[in-house]
Design goal:
- The chain has 139 residues and is mainly alpha-helical.
- It has a single domain, classed as Non-ribosomal Peptide Synthetase Peptidyl Carrier Protein, Chain A (Orthogonal Bundle).
- Helices cover 82% and strands 4% of the residues.
- Strand 1 and strand 2 form a beta hairpin.
- It is elongated, with a radius of gyration of 33 Å.
- The protein starts with a helix and ends with a helix.
């Protein structure tokens, strides 16, 4: 039972996944900091009360009823930044690599498919020549 667990943990995919999670967490912290410290102040500067940012109190004086539009906009920008970096750094290069591998595979398959068709007539011709030589030797 422990051997199977050890094999599972030591498999390359699990380790790569763990590294990706750690890197994603660190990257998320950077983007969140960027969003909170640069984007949020810019959004707050556009409109709203300077003390609370871009939002409104449904009931004046009650902080629990504050609708924080700036935080929602910051989260959306945060998501777009992360999604665009994941796409351009991971997805797009992997798609290009897969396309190249498929092209190589098609070229290799086409080359290997043509060879047997060319080889077969030569083999048949050689076998016919061997047969004719054997007939001449026997007679």
């Amino acid at each position: 039972m422990l051997k199977g667990f050890r094999d599972f943990i030591l498999r390359g995919n699990v380790i790569e996944l763990a590294v990706a999670v750690v890197m994603g967490t660190a990257f998320t912290a950077i983007v969140t900091s960027f969003s909170e410290h640069l984007i949020s102040p810019l959004i707050a500067a556009v409109g709203g009360n300077p003390d609370v940012g871009l939002g409104i109190h449904i009931i004046a004086g009650n902080d629990a009823t504050y609708l924080d539009f700036g935080a929602v906009i910051s989260s959306a920008i945060n998501f777009l930044i992360i999604a665009s970096i994941v796409y351009f750094v991971l997805i797009l290069p992997m798609n290009k690599i897969n396309e190249l591998q498929e092209k190589r595979k098609k070229v290799t398959d086409a080359d290997s498919a043509e060879e047997p068709a060319e080889v077969a007539p030569i083999e048949v011709q050689l076998l016919a020549e061997i047969r004719d030589l054997l007939k001449t030797q026997q007679s």
